[in-house]
C-alpha cells in the first residue's frame, strides 16, 4: 500500500492558485457579506491583527446622521463572537456626524482608531482618536473616557495614525487656516494623554505655502517620523526627529518638495505614501486628466528622486476609464505595491499591483490587476496583508443607500492546492497512512503561521474538514467522513507554504 501511495504522489499533478487569485478557502468561497444594521454602511479601512483576526470599519448612514462601526472577523472571515455585539461595535462621538478613517491594533489586541467629528455647520470639525479593548468595548481608561482630540485653529480632518514601538500614538492630518490648509501632527502617550516631549506640548503645526493635504504618517527605523501627502497638487513630505524638530538631513531643512512630470497632478486628499525596508518613499494615488491614471513618484531615503524607478522616478498608468478612484494601499513582503481600485467603470473588487521597479506585476491577477467579479456593482475600499501570503480587501456593494460591507481575500503566492510530488513533502510526516476512520495527524517539519488551513481533494476542490493547527502539528478531525481517495492540506509555515497529501480508505 505504501509503495502505491508513493507512486501516486510522484505522478500526481498540482493545481496552482495564481498570485492575486480569489482565495476559495476564505469565508464563503472567497468572500463574506455583512448584512447592514441600518440603511447604508460604507467601509473606509481594514487592518489585520498580529493573530490573523481582521478589523474592518467605516461609517453608517441613517438619515443625516452618521456613526462609526467596527467589526472583527476571525482569520477565516467569520464574525468574531467575542468582539462587541455579535462581532460589531458602534462608536458615537456626538449627535450628528462621525467619520472613521483608519484602524490599528496594539500587541495586546486593543484597537486604536482615528477619525473626526462635526456637530453642525457652525461648529468646527475636530480630529478624534479612540481606543477599544480587545472585546470591542470603549477603553474608558485611555485618554478622556476613551477619546483623545486633535484640534487646531479651524476644522481638523484626521486621516492617519501610526504606533511607535514604545506604544505612543502619532496622529496626522490637516486643518483650515484662512483660505489655506496646513498640517498638524500630535503624539499621545500610552495612556492617551498628550506627550509633552513632542513639539510644542505634544503638537507640531506645519505651515505650507499652498494647501497641505497631510494624509500619512510613518515611523522610520531610526525613530524618525515621516508625514506627507500633497502641497496643492505635488508630493510633499516632512521628516521629524523623535522630539518633533525637523530632520535637516532630509530634503531641504527637513522638507521634500516633489514634482510630477509624467502627466496630470496628484489629487489632494487622495495621495498616499509608502516606505519600504530601505526607507524608499513612494507617493501614489489618482492623478488628474481626461482619463483616470495611477501616478507613482519614488524617492530615496534622503529625499532625492529614485531614478531607477519607473521612468526617472515616475509612473503614470492609464486605467482606461474616465472615472475611477484609488485608495490607501499596502506594500507586500516582497516590496510590491498594491492598492484598491474602485468606481462605476469597474463594478468588481479590483486590486492593482506594481513591482519594485514600477512596472505592473505580471504574476498578479491578469496583467497586474486582480478582480473578484461577484455579480453586481462592488467597490474595493481598503486592503491589508494577512500573514505572508494573503490580501484581505474590504469594500461595499455600490455606494448608494442600501449598501452593505463585503470582504474578500486574494492569494499572494503560488500555493500548491493539489497533491505535490514526493520531493515537496520529504520533510513531513503523516499518520496513519492510509486512514481507516481515524483522525489524521500531520507534522509539516516547520512551525505554522497564522492563517487558514485548507483541505482539498485531488481535483483542487475544498472539502468540509476543519483542520486544527498548533505549533508544528496539524490534526484533521472528521477525515473519516470523506470518500475514499487522495487529499491534501495546505498550510502556511515559517519555511513557506506547504501542501501535504494524505489518503482516505
What attributes characterize this protein structure?
single chain, 505 residues, mainly beta, Immunoglobulin-like, 1 helix, disordered N terminus
**If helices are DSSP runs of H or I spanning 4 or more residues, what is the number of helices?**
1
Beta strand %:
over 45%
From the coordinates shown, what is the CATH architecture of the domain at 2-16 and 418-504?
Sandwich
Summed over residues and divided by their number, the pLDDT gives a mean of 82
Note down, in words, how this protein is organized:
The strands form 10 sheets. Strands 23, 24, 25, 26 and 27 form a 5-stranded antiparallel sheet that branches. The protein has one helix at 2-11; strands at 16-17, 31-33, 40-48, 54-62, 65-73, 88-91, 97-105, 111-118, 126-132, 147-150, 156-163, 169-177, 180-188, 203-206, 212-219, 225-231, 234-240, 255-257, 266-275, 281-287, 293-299, 314-318, 325-326, 330-331, 337-342, 349-354, 369-372, 378-386, 390-397, 405-411, 415-416, 429-431, 440-443, 454-457, 467-470, 473-476, 485-493, 496-504. Strand 24 (330-331) and strand 25 (337-342) form a beta hairpin. The model is unreliable at 1-17 and 414-426 (pLDDT under 50). It is an all-beta fold and 505 residues long. The protein is built from 1 helix and 38 strands. The chain has a domain at 2-16 and 418-504: Immunoglobulin-like (Sandwich), CATH 2.60.40.
Summarize the structure.
With 505 residues, the protein is mainly beta. The protein is 2% helix and 46% strand.
